[in-house]
């Protein structure tokens, strides 16, 4: 296996546009879905890249980081089509979880997670649609951040679903992640004081295995985090979010890629094929009706936590599975969990708080749109 098989484009020497700057010590990798000048912006499918021209410019977020002195290592592999959550790509190299080789890696930005976890890079960025950055960050013991809607410029990012696309960031260190976020915000976050950390205790009890739940409760008991337990957020709420997410995602995927998918018929894995089959083919009427449901869902979250508060949920429904076979209920619950922030436009920060059976598992903090600084403030209390 090649040492750097997670890279699909490698810069030798490293590209550095400005030799001095506040980020001159940071090393950056970007997922295939992030635009780089003179390279094709891909979606994890070689047949797509073969039919498209190289980008004329870097993605806006890349330009921002490079103008602050970042060193660019290269482009990294994404899983097939970029909306899978497996981390695998049958068209490219087979990647392994850098922390636990037998555990699921998670996608879509699986290659970037490996680069950051191994220390080849200090920052990884990708499209977080369908948990594309948060899931591999969680499974690799990294910090991962999804900005709230409109906080980071999306120009130059390959679109999968414009309603849910967001630039995602992953790092090994919280301080680095916060510095990068502040550099990339295109508007100032709201000046709001942190009112409370609300623990969605029902989700941890309903979704986590006994082993994971024991690890989490021990972590809570040892922490000095003051929190309010909120037992009423259940899998039913998650199911509502996922149903909304599936309809909008499916319609927007069809608009972006439907004709190409039907003509080219790329051979995806069974998991991706099944997911596409479930979400595609939604009518325009259903799409419009679901957009209204999205607004209602976002408003209804105030019944669980309010502006000025941070909601704490598991990033995944337990530790990443080991082996090839993954229970369908695990996949469904994983998609339900990432749907909350994506449907409501919330910011989300996953923290590498747990190690269960030798593999990492993240816990997420969510805040209302524009209140992104609150997730970093709440996270810092874990690491005082």
What's the β-strand tally?
Answer: 11
Biggest sheet, open or closed, and with what strands and sense? 11 strands, mixed
Number of helices: 12
Helix content bin: 25-40%
> What ranges have pLDDT less than 50 throughout 5 or more consecutive residues?
none
What sequence of helices (H) and strands (E) makes up the elements? EEHHEHEHEEHEHHEHHHEHEEH
Strand order of the largest sheet: 1-3-2-4-6-5-10-11-9-7-8
Distance between the termini: 40 Å
Q: How would you explain this protein's 3D organization?
A:
- By secondary structure, this protein is an alpha/beta fold.
- 36% of the residues lie in helices and 17% in strands.
- It has 12 helices and 11 strands.
- Strands 1-3-2-4-6-5-10-11-9-7-8 form an 11-stranded mixed sheet, with helices on both faces.
- Helix 8 (235-264) runs antiparallel to helix 10 and helix 8 packs across helix 11.
- The longest helix is centred in the middle third of the chain and has 30 residues, at 235-264.
- The protein is globular and about 50 Å long.
- The termini are far apart.
- The relative contact order is 0.15.
- The model has no long low-confidence stretch (mean pLDDT 92).
SSE diagram, text form:
Layout: E1 7-15, E2 27-31, H1 46-50, H2 60-66, E3 71-76, H3 110-118, E4 123-127, H4 134-139, E5 143-146, E6 167-171, H5 174-184, E7 196-199, H6 201-207, H7 210-222, E8 228-229, H8 235-264, H9 270-279, H10 284-300, E9 309-314, H11 328-344, E10 347-356, E11 359-367, H12 373-380
Parallel strand pairs: 2-3, 2-4, 7-8, 7-9
Antiparallel strand pairs: 1-3, 4-6, 5-6, 5-10, 9-11, 10-11
Helix pairs in contact: 8-10, 8-11
